[in-house]
Amino acid sequence: MSKAETIRSAKLGKKELRLVRMNGRYFGLADGVRCAEGENADDVWRQLHDDAGKSDPKYFGFDGARKRFLTFFPNGFHSSGYASQERDYKLAAKANLDDTAPLEKAVDGTGFGEAVLAVFRTTNMLSPFEKTRLQDVLRGPRADDFVRAAARFTLDGSKSHLLAMEQALKPHDNAKWTVATYLAYLWRPDRHMFLKPEATKDFATRVGHRFAGDYEARLSLPVYEGLLDLVAKTERELADMRPRDRIDITASSGWWATVKKDGKPSTNRTGLAGIAGQRRNPRGKL
What we know:
The chain is α+β, with helices and mostly antiparallel strands. Helix content is 49%, strand content 13%. It has helices at residues 41-53, 61-72, 82-100, 103-106, 113-121, 128-138, 143-156, 159-169, 177-187, 197-207, 211-214, 221-237, 272-276, and strands at 5-12, 15-22, 25-30, 33-38, 255-259, 265-269. It has a four-stranded antiparallel β-sheet with strand order 1-2-3-4. α5 (113-121) packs antiparallel against α6 (128-138) and α7 (143-156) packs antiparallel against α8.
């Protein structure tokens, strides 16, 4: 019998997770207790995260998320009022982007800075501070670099283009996930996702997904791939609700409902976290 070898470890809340290899197999341990095992390291690590996440006090899984959402929107994403309140303004922003900075032209083009800035300003998906800093980016010498990198990332989702966006944004202290994912999400809502970190981490915790523990503020491809895995799982779980694209399964805006003291629903925007029923803090930030 070979000696157990820890090949990966991480923290999930207060839990310590370890992936151990022994005798050609992999074992997932949460605080020393075996929760998963198998022959594929990635599968065992994923299962470990999912199982350990179920012990979090916030956890209620996709069934709980679905039930809460449908309480207020019986027809899901196709409920009366849903599109006019949350979907239509994103589609308008997408139409504006497609018209003034088409993806196929933005890939190698120049001079799209002002058009792109206008699209960022048309929604409430970024904070005022992020929008102000974007003005310096998109009216500065790195505007074309940023727009081209965003367009190329939309097409192939590669590390090099994510890094190129970071290099254009970092001098202005604006290398944020909200900024880096906004354009790809509007250009191709069928395959990309907008990332609002706190709302998305909260949702991941509630449904037991490893994104909550894997997230990093730094722009890195593994974080974005983890987001896409969370989105893909959400799409599978909610397939019967017929989401049209990832505008319906968005991490930052969409509908959620809390219950006021009088028992009536109070609606606010967050999307993925909205399905889970996340609350806002007193300042209205997610």
